[in-house]
Design goal:
The protein is of the alpha/beta class. It is 17% helix and 19% strand. A hairpin with a 7-residue loop joins strand 2 and strand 3.
């Protein structure tokens, strides 16, 4: 017979009288990992060698009693758990497993250095059911993304020679500390696959992906999921790209009406030079899908060109505007354009998309009141 290990406890305290009349023994109903519910068994505490699960059980019970019963007198007499408490503990344990599986999947799919963690200490919401993690733009049918540069630099030191930015008529975007030094609205031209400089070139920042460990977490202010950094981020540093499905502006108009009615906002117009395409991160996206809006954000939008030099299809990079401490939520202004301006024509806000106004919950002193 294969060995069984506790997966989570559908547990409760009960009065128990054995044949030897030993009163008040503490038993837990155990769900065994890899086994169906029909094999659940009641086990005495001394049989359980899973201190972490027991601590989680205790924490879940405490959270339920403190949150659900807030303001009411509660008598915990160490006897059988009430059904509502037991049900909550079971749901919380199942949620924890589902979030762990989702976290593992996200980290298998990502192609960047930074790890992704998932946390929900607020409610019983599990992983989104219709979201697919991608690392780069996903073109909709009929849209072609040419991700192959036609020319590249031959620099030995891209800081001092005529590199890709100079060829495009702009300044090199970064300093030697890998911080962005150009003002918002100025495009970033990084070295590409045809350049002779190596992977350690100082003009290869966005293409290396997120370097910081981030956490998708459930917010306590009604904003759903959010993203926080687990490490300190220096000001003017690259944090993440905004990726999703690339669709036409006409399709964005249609989807925008549906999203407005649901009170969600995932459309980002690619309007660096024209307004032909939009990025929709509703179903396909990366960690940026979960970044919330703020009227006083700590991330700034920049247009980036690397292998695809089509000015209709810039990549969207988010850089820190100030030092962001570990544990702090990451936000950007949903009305911010790649030009650096704040406009109602950026994320899901063209005139045809303004069907329903979405209330802003950012809480900033400068809050505009609405996302659109």
């Amino acid at each position: 017979m294969r060995e069984r290990a506790p997966q989570f406890g559908r547990t409760g305290r009960v009065d128990f009288l054995s044949e030897n009349n030993i009163p008040d023994m503490e038993y837990y109903l155990v769900k065994w990992k890899g086994w169906p519910d029909s094999t659940n068994t009641w086990e005495p505490l001394q049989n359980l060698k899973c201190p972490l699960l027991l601590q989680q059980f205790s924490n879940d019970k405490h959270n339920y009693l403190s949150q659900v019963k807030k303001g009411k007198a509660i008598k915990d007499n160490n006897k059988a758990l009430k059904p509502a408490i037991a049900e909550y503990i079971v749901k919380k344990a199942k949620q924890r497993l589902a979030l762990q599986r989702w976290q593992d999947e996200l980290n298998r799919r990502k192609n960047h250095k930074g790890m992704i963690f998932v946390e929900n200490t607020v409610d019983l919401e599990g992983p989104p059911s219709d979201f697919y993690y991608i690392n780069e733009y996903k073109p909709a049918p009929g849209i072609s993304l040419v991700n192959e540069a036609t020319f590249g630099c031959s620099c030995t030191d891209c800081f001092f020679e005529k590199c890709c930015p100079a060829e495009a008529g702009v300044l090199l975007a970064y300093n030697k500390n890998q911080q962005i030094k150009i003002p918002p609205g100025t495009p970033i031209y990084e070295c590409n696959s045809r350049c002779q400089c190596g992977p350690d070139c100082p003009n290869r920042i966005v293409q290396k992906g997120t370097q910081y460990s981030l956490c998708i977490f459930r917010t306590s202010n009604g904003c759903g999921w959010g993203v926080k950094t687990l490490v300190k981020i220096k000001r003017m540093s690259f944090v993440m790209e905004y990726v999703g499905e690339v669709i036409t502006s006409e399709e964005a108009e249609r989807r925008g009406q549906l999203y407005d009615n649901k009170g969600i906002t995932y459309l980002f117009d690619l309007d660096y030079e024209s307004d032909e395409f939009t990025v929709d991160a509703a179903r396909y996206g990366n960690v940026s899908h979960f970044v919330n809006h703020s009227c006083d954000p700590n991330l700034q939008v920049f247009n980036v060109f690397i292998d695809n030099l089509d000015t209709r299809l810039p990549r969207i990079a988010l850089f820190s505007t100030r030092t962001i401490n570990a544990g702090e939520e990451l936000t950007f202004d949903y009305q911010m354009k790649g030009s650096g301006d704040v406009s109602s024509d950026s994320v899901d806000h063209s005139p045809a998309k303004k069907r329903v106004r979405t209330v802003c919950k950012c809480g900033a002193v400068t809050c505009r009141g609405y996302l659109n």
